[in-house]
Amino acid sequence: MAIPKDLYYTREHEWARLEGDRVTVGITDYAQEQLGDIVYVELPVEGDRLKAGEAFGVIESVKAVSDLYAPISGEVLEVNQELLDHPEWVNQDPYGKAWMLVVSLDDRSELDALLDARGYEEMLAEEKA
Amino acid sequence: MSERPDLCSEASSGLLFREPLIFEMGAEGRTAVQVSPEEVEGWRELLPPGYVRESLPLPELTEPEVVRHYTRLSQWNFCVDSGFYPLGSCTMKYSPKVNDLVASLEGFTGIHPYQPLQWIQGALCVIYELEEMLAEITGMDAVTLQPAAGAQGELTGMLIVKAYHEHRGEKRRKVLIPDSAHGTNPASCALCGFEVIQVPSDTRGLLAPEALETRMTPEVAALMLTNPNTLGLFEEDILELTRIVHDKGGLVYCDGANLNALGGVARLGDMGVDLVHMNLHKTFSTPHGGGGPGAGPLGVKAHLAPFLPAPRVEKGPNGFALREDYPLSIGRVKAFYGHFAVLVRAYTYLLSNGPQGIREATETAVLNANYLRVRLRDVYHLPYDRICKHECVFTDRNQAPKGIRTLDIAKRLMDYGFHPPTIYFPLIVKGALMVEPTETETKETLDRFIEAMKRIAQEEPEVVRSAPHTTFLARLDEVSAARRPVLVAPTP
Amino acid sequence: MSYIPNRHRIQQEMLEAIGVSSVEDLFKDIPESVRLKGPLNLPGPFPEWELVRRMEDLAGRNRPATRLLSFLGAGCYNHHVPAALLHLIQRSEFYTAYTPYQPEVSQGTLQAIFEFQTYVARLTGMEVANASLYDGASSLAEAVLMAQRIRKGRSRVILPTTVHPEYRQVVRTLVGPLRLEILEPPETATLEADWEVLKDLLDSKVSCVVIQNPNFFGTIEDLDGIRDLAQRAREVEALFIVLIVEPLSLGILLPPGEYGADVVAAEGQSFGIPMSFGGPHLGLFATRSAFVRQMPGRLVGQTRDARGNLGYVLTLATREQHIRRERATSNICTNQSLCALAAAVYLSMAGRTGLQRLAALNVNRTRQAMDALDGIEGFHIVQRRCFNEFVARPPVPPSLLNQRLMERGILGGLDLSRFDSRWEGLWLLCCTEKTSLEDIQTLRKSIEEIVDV
Q1: Number of H helices and number of E strands within chain C?
Q2: Which of A41, B363, C50, C130 has its CA 20 to 30 A from that of B118?
């Protein structure tokens, strides 16, 4: 199960990739495995404002629904429109094709609240126990 | 997507036919309804131009074609009349045929809801007396038969809870619901604008007074519980629980889906419950119809009666009447008076059982469930191993190491001639398999079910995981159905 | 009781297997103080022959409209229910089946409902339809709730009095918790929707505007008025909801999908479902594909099984209560499956030719009745552009007319003052394919006699 080293992670299984002032967001390999075959993703629109820790969207498998939580606060700069037509990408390529949003980073200090790859790995090990 | 079978198709097995969509059948000019062209002459001139539709893409079939199509479709269905449905929380008991016979009397089917009172006295009597009988069974003071289904009965109940508190000038925004509750409970609350606070079940699988006490505040409008709960267990602390809620001015709502465990033995109204909805298509034997229609009457205590939906049937010296003026009523939840044809069936069921029959049904339902419980507990993990009520919950924990999950067991049961039990509910039990035999199943059937369940636990995992094998269709791709929904046949 | 098989010796065997000595032991967890000591105060039991006799007595205390000359409509219609339809829906496999959660053993119900969804979509001219809701009124309420979900933050609903009064009551009750402003502009003097007023009320505070067509008074609403309204609704991005209470009208009238409807809510009782004193009936719901995930109720979708065969399943269940719980699109659990099946059978039997002819016959009979009554001195027909219901203003109070007609065994039209005192003197009559020319003559003669006296 993949946990790329260069990403930040949340306790709710979102990942965040920092590129300058922009943060790309998606869900982890572990998350897509747990959810099963994804059938639908509901995302915000460009211009929406997100708050760290609050739900920004919904992800659905056949029998379950989960909220998606914002890792950081900021403005939605880009939304992966193609993902809406290809929810299966979340299962196939959660860190690549299945990126969900690009958000502007308002407050760098919020990154401190996120986990790094190691921290996420440890968290998963704890959950399993 | 469409497929027509070949004339000599291997696709039919025995006498079960592959049947195309009705839209692919028929031929121009056919119909099963006789209206002569002369009778409809000139109609076009009666309507202004532009108002008439140009295309009506419906099939054209004769009566024999229609009958054959639906007869063949019906043969693909499992049903109570063909076999056992151990579906927990659904109470799949036998639907007596005399109820249907009686409900189809023209004196019941042919009445229009707006007929003058003198000509609907029989109908009003059915409604009035059924309300009384259901009140007697549940220990309530007044009953409305207006709600169309259990979920609507719940909604009606929660609207009444809201109206009651508002009438008393109190702002109570919260409702307490156990984590084992059926999904309609929080959904109904949300529709009323309540905030749902979940109460965790304890290790007994029950609601503990302490857990309730800490959460019960003057902001809480009601506790919404199910008793027996969705694990099939009676809430032993019920008297204490209702007292805690009442002490802080709240109301107790009970989801009556599990009434088959109490009828004639105990009454929810005696336990401190203020409102309870019933499911006539569960406890009271009205047919399930493939998913409705049912009916969801709501019973309430006297202090809530003024809020019930209007109109209500009144009995006077000159007969029955419909009274509209209830100033505190929450209004209407349904046009007309409710699912009358379903009410007639429930009424008939009650008359044929009498008080003894109701009690015997309850006792036997609970007997049957406990019998299944003890005969299967050595094979399937039973998270709450003690006397249950009308249903019990197993899990797939013992079978999981072999890679067999609840879903697989459910699908494999079909090969043995049984409908699967309720699966993955309640949510608080991982891999739940909820079994409710009801009182109308014979011991022989129960023994065959037990045997099937035992065999499945011993089978090759691959056989179970790829089940069902003998049904008309194998497992269906629900993922594609949800990703790219096709909800209608393509228009020609 | 004959339905309970495990008694006496068998019961004993089972009790032994369980490890208790009596049935009472199974209820020990119920507090002693609430365990019933004696039998409930209920009538019965009665053996089947007596049961039938009692129920026949009760049924006999009703005089059903189907056995009388009846001109009652107003949301519940006396249409013919074909014998083959009754036969088919009484098949055990449809009647006693459960909700099709296990598709492998429920393909009968699932394909039948898929066909039903298709029928509803085609009839209404919309892209998708659901597996049914309880009735037309709750369908309308669900449409309003859906509009609120889609146009979050808007606080007004336009629900004119041309919509059935009981339906408006149901909407007010079910939508009440949202604390919306529900505006109910009155009908015009000619019993039509007041287009100017409706358009004026449409602004960005409004989530949806509803019209009923044909409306409560039987009027077929003016197409130009409808199209203007639809246009205005589009401009302010409010949803345009069309309610159809007499769906037989769709056999000949332009469907709402062709005049700009975003949602169609309807009552399907006219399609082979007996009146049964008001229920169970059938809620129809259709909308645009874009709104599919906001739709309430069950949905059947087409798919394939593991062997590649075409099949049907309940789908998009994640909108529903058992998954979304408090965030569900609705709390609805059962639909009206057997009634939906009846409607599908009805439409299959009528087909394109039959449905059009039935609708046309309703129009013809109604026109003949209008002409007959118009010929009576003092009678005024308020609006003639109708499908199968119309309003007359008799020279005597409708209640008096109805009373005298009752004495002759005739169910007259509906006295509309029962709903609203503004409608004093208005009499709503309905003619269907079951109304013969002789029936119309009988009505005319009877009224003439009554009015003359």
Answers
A1: 13, 15
A2: C50
Stretch C377-404: mean pLDDT: 96
Does residue B33 share a domain with residue B167?
Answer: no
- Regarding whether B107 and B67 lie in a shared domain, the answer is no
Residues of chain B with Cβ-Cβ distance to A88 below 8 Å are 483
pTM above 0.80, yes or no: yes
Average pLDDT estimate for B372-388: 96
Give, in words, the CATH class of A8-128.
mainly beta
A40 interface with B at CB cutoff 8 Å: yes
Token pair for residue C113?
């409902």
Interface of B with A in 405-424 (CB under 8 A): 424
CATH code of the domain covering residue B120: 3.40.640.10
Give chain B's mean pLDDT: 94
Nearest to B224 by CA among B180, B272, B189, B176: B176
Nearest to C42 among B133, B270, B482 (CB): B133
Q: How far is A13 from chain B (nearest CA, A)?
A: 21
Identify the burial level of B197 via C-beta atoms within 10 angstroms of its C-beta, where 0-12 means exposed, 13-18 middle and 19 or more buried: middle
In this structure, the answer to whether residues B266 and B188 fall within a common structural domain is: yes
Total count of domains within chain B = 3
Residue B484 within a domain: no
Query: What's the pLDDT at C3?
Result: 87
Chain-chain contact of B291 with C7 (C-beta, under 8 angstroms):
no
Contact at CB, C138 and B152, closer than 8 angstroms: yes
Tell me, yes or no, whether B157 and B289 share the same domain.
yes
Residue C335: its pLDDT value, please? 81
Contact residues for B343 (Cβ-Cβ < 8 A; gap 6+):
B126, B127, B130, B145, B280, B295
Domain boundaries, chain A: 8-128
| Chains in touch with A (≥3 Cβ pairs < 8 A) | B, C
Q: What pLDDT does residue B14 have?
A: 61
Is B115 found in the same domain as B54?
A: no
Q: Each residue of B119-178: pLDDT tens digit? A: 999 999 999 999 999 999 999 999 999 999 999 999 999 999 999 999 999 999 999 999
* Residues in chain A closer than 8 A to C327 (CB atoms): 65
CA distance to C160, C312, C325, per residue, from C195 (Å): 10, 43, 40
In a domain, B382, yes or no: yes
Of B20, B41, B76, the residue at which a domain comes to its end is B76
pLDDT tens string C314-329: 999 877 766 666 666 6
**Inter-chain CB proximity A87 and B483 less than 8 Å:** yes
